[in-house]
Amino acid sequence: MKKGGKLIVFSAPSGSGKTTIVRHLLSQPELNLAFSVSATSRPRRPKEKQGEHYYFMSISEFKKHIKNDDFLEWEEVYRDNFYGTLKSEVTRLWEEGKNVIFDIDVAGGLRIKRKFPDLTLAVFVKPPSVDELKIRLKKRSTENEDKINMRIAKASIELATAPQFDKIVKNYDLDTALKESRDLVADFVGLPQDKTKADPEK
């Protein structure tokens, strides 16, 4: 892969709020970010669109891409539920002159950091507690109790990986987490800190 802009990885257990943070950052034009759409073999949920939320594939199609070494990183997150980042997706966004932002699994985020250590800012979004995660996941109403319990069990393991990331953002208060995340990314891509928000008198 030909190297291009910066890579910004946001990883966290499900329900931590990383997707909300990433969407906020994408709405800040000065950061020059573009979202890396992941590929997955999991079933599409209602309202999800092909190529916008994920590149949805069959299990056999996903495995063919693995065999062809088409992924920058991939992971079997749950049995027969594969997720991965296509090299072609990152190359496409780099060719557009963008910094690429990822909303991905903890293991995938760390793999990208290892492959591009100098180009990558890896951020772990930490939830207030595992109990709070369970409440958030139940509020989504997108999965059954068994699947939620699987995610919670996985979250406990994922939380232990936080020290391996460059930065940890504690999402106890969303507004604070959004500002902290914006400042981290702005600094990494070489923008000055947002002084106007920090000092309301100016």
Count of DSSP strands: 9
Order of helices and strands: EHEEEHEEHEHEHHEHH
How many domain units?
Answer: 1
Q: What are the segments in which pLDDT stays under 50 over at least 5 consecutive residues? A: 195-202
User: What overall form do the CA principal axes indicate?
Assistant: globular
What CATH architecture would you give?
A: 3-Layer(aba) Sandwich
Radius of gyration: 17 Å
Number of helices: 8
Termini gap: 44 Å
CATH superfamily: P-loop containing nucleotide triphosphate hydrolases
Beta-strand percentage range? 15-25%
Largest sheet report:
5 strands, parallel
Mean pLDDT across all amino acids: 90
Reading side by side through the largest sheet, how are the strands ordered?
2-7-1-8-9
Estimated structural class: alpha/beta
CATH fold-level name? Rossmann fold
